[in-house]
Design a protein that fits this description.
mainly beta, 47% strand, eleven-stranded mixed sheet, single chain, 3 helices, seven-stranded antiparallel sheet
Length: 510
């Protein structure tokens, strides 16, 4: 409801009312939110003065969408019942159309929901009205008379619980007019459409895990010889001292080159009962023993173990020590250790033990360095590819208004050119490459969505005669157009497909 006027007979019988109401989708009468106010003008009697009191209501709230309206408390303030009717201006609600491509889908999360109707309240008509009444609702899905839920963005979550759910969306065309004569306005505009695709990928270093060339070559191991004694006896019985863990992938934080020593996503316990840390070894054989062992094998990768290539620690008999050896701490009773790295620190072996002694990474992570920069850039560099295309086309639209209060827009679309895509490939950290390719009209197409907006405004002045004399001016025609085109870009590196969607909105208002 845009406006309601209660028309008086003449200046001697002023009108007033209390409230403008509408019936909601559940059959309840609600306040429309429109404020009532008196306004002066001529009544319908030919002898009326210009001081006759009308009663007016402005635009209702955006939630007030209904076919059923009523005015509460309408009266002639003199006590008589003289009034000459109502003049109503309405805006047609957005139509809801079926969108089968979203059947069986739901809002991506609860924050995307705009309404939730259940049971008998979830009829198709009630669900349509609920979505139409909410500006934030763009579509809904449901099983009628069971449930329906509105969403503020396209539904992309597959609803496994209700695969039979049917989806509807707001139609993007609304038209209102109160013209009483027939006029035409013809518009011609040129649309420049640009689509951009940007992708970022990681190559072998996916999700922060690097695949080691030698599966099982990197491991941590305890030694159970002579461990069935003293304080070591309970762990011996539990199988701790015979434990061995191997790794097939390492979790690497690439900007700091740190390996998480406690990550076991791609680790395997091949012996014993304890999931050991990366770079950990231990035994309980005796003073100065070094029968526990770990190996870190990075051969064939761009990485090396940072720091010194070797060190040794021997704790005095009868003492508990905690001493550093490169990135490791050697700890325990009568503990000892020896670290030796070869192949430019890509293969490191450390033997550790004691009378319950061992070694582990002091910081909880293994610090790496890049040994082969070109291989690192090739395998783990991030690249960003941006493709931009421009297409020119011409749209011609004709707006026709008729005495029945309808408006029709007829548009023709004329493609006028081909498009060129320029793709730029950038890899880090060591090199940059670029590629250029041509986007033609033949295609193997997959999913790039292109949305383009153009706005044209035309003004027409129409003279017409009502009960009095009035001028209908400024029919504003706003056209928003997104073209549908399909094409393919094929380059040496990939096949890129483009699909774009056409949405047209025509709004005509007095």
């Amino acid at each position: 409801m845009q406006q309601l006027l209660a028309i008086p007979w003449h200046h001697g019988h002023p009108l007033q009312a209390t409230q403008l109401q509408y019936r909601d989708p559940w059959g309840r009468w609600q306040n429309s939110g429109a404020a009532g106010a008196a306004a002066s003008g001529y009544g319908m009697w030919s002898g009326s003065l210009s001081s006759a009191q009308y009663w007016t209501y402005g635009a209702a709230s955006s939630d007030a969408v209904s076919k059923h309206w009523k005015v509460q408390g309408m009266q002639d303030t003199t006590g008589y019942s003289y009034g000459c009717g109502l003049q109503v201006t309405i805006k047609a609600p957005l139509m809801m159309v079926a969108v089968p491509q979203y059947d069986g889908k739901a809002c991506e999360n609860t924050r995307a929901r705009t309404f939730d109707l259940r049971g008998s309240n979830a009829s198709l008509d009630a669900c349509r009205s609920a979505c139409s009444a909410r500006p934030s609702c763009i579509m809904f899905s449901g099983v009628w008379d069971n449930w329906c839920i509105g969403c503020n963005k396209p539904m992309n979550l597959v609803n496994n619980a209700s695969s039979s759910a049917v989806a509807f969306a707001k139609q993007t065309t609304t038209t209102t007019t109160t013209a009483t004569s027939t006029q035409s306005v013809t518009m011609t505009s040129t649309l420049s459409m640009t689509s951009t695709l940007t992708t970022t990928q990681a190559w072998p270093c996916q999700a922060g895990y690097y695949t080691l060339p030698r599966d099982g070559g990197t491991f941590s191991q305890y030694n159970d010889e002579n461990a069935n004694r003293g304080n070591c006896q309970s762990d011996y019985a539990a199988g701790v001292w015979s434990s061995k863990v191997t790794w097939s992938k390492l979790q690497i934080v690439y900007n700091s080159l740190r390996v998480n020593a406690s990550d076991h996503t791609f680790a395997q316990l091949v012996a014993g009962s304890k999931m050991l840390l990366l770079g950990e070894a231990r035994d309980c054989f005796g003073s100065g023993s070094k029968r526990g062992k770990f190996v870190i094998d990075l051969r064939g990768t761009p990485f090396a173990v940072a720091g010194t290539s070797g060190c040794s620690v021997v704790g005095p008999a009868g003492t508990v020590i905690s001493e550093s050896c490169s990135q490791w701490t050697v700890y325990g009773w009568e503990a000892a250790a020896n670290l030796m790295c070869t192949d430019s620190n890509q293969l490191c072996t450390m033997s550790c033990g004691g009378s319950s002694g061992g070694c582990n990474l002091a910081s909880g992570y293994l610090q790496l360095s890049v040994l082969h920069a070109a291989l690192f850039a090739e395998q783990c560099g991030q690249f960003t590819s941006t493709m931009t295309s421009t297409r020119m086309a011409t749209m011609t639209s004709t707006l026709t208004t008729t005495p029945t209060g309808t408006a029709t827009v007829t548009s023709t679309w004329s493609p006028s050119s081909t498009a060129t895509i320029t793709s730029t490939l950038t890899t880090t950290p060591t090199w940059t490459a670029s590629m250029t390719s041509t986007w033609g009209l033949t295609s193997t197409v997959t999913t790039i969505y292109v949305t383009t907006t153009t706005t044209s405004t035309q003004t027409a002045t129409i003279m017409s005669t009502w009960s009095g004399t009035s001028t209908l001016a400024a029919i504003h025609v706003t056209t928003t157009t997104t073209s549908t085109r399909t094409a393919t870009m094929t380059s040496a590196a990939s096949t890129v497909s483009v699909a774009s969607t056409l949405t047209t909105t025509h709004v005509t208002a007095q």
